[in-house]
């Protein structure tokens, strides 16, 4: 599992191995629009302020994935212990 700090809402949530970030945020009352939930539409794109993203989407180019400024929170995960998101 990993932690997601949501700077705009001032909340930190824990995402378990079988959960998606977008679902955990929704359960915490932090709503982010999502559509495909498969990493193909881009609706759930969120800015990343800190942490290393495990990108699992099909939208971002390799360069964009490496830059790590944004992520699709329906499918992508955390490759460090904590992500800080602009949400
Ligand atoms: Fe479509 Fe996340 S909801 S990419």
From TrEMBL:
Residues of the full protein shown: 237 to 323 of 323
Residue stretches in coiled coil: none
Domain 2Fe-2S ferredoxin-type intervals: 1-87
Organism: Streptomyces laurentii
Domain of life of the source: Bacteria
UniProt name for this protein: Flavodoxin reductase family 1
């Amino acid at each position: 599992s990993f932690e997601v700090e949501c700077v705009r809402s001032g909340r930190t949530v824990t995402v378990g191995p079988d959960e998606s970030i977008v679902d955990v945020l929704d359960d915490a009352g932090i709503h982010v629009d999502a559509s495909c939930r498969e990493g193909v539409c881009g609706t759930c794109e969120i800015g990343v302020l800190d942490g290393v993203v495990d990108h699992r989407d099909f939208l971002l180019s390799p360069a964009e994935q490496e830059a790590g400024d944004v992520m699709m929170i329906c499918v992508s995960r955390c490759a460090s212990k904590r992500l800080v998101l602009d949400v």
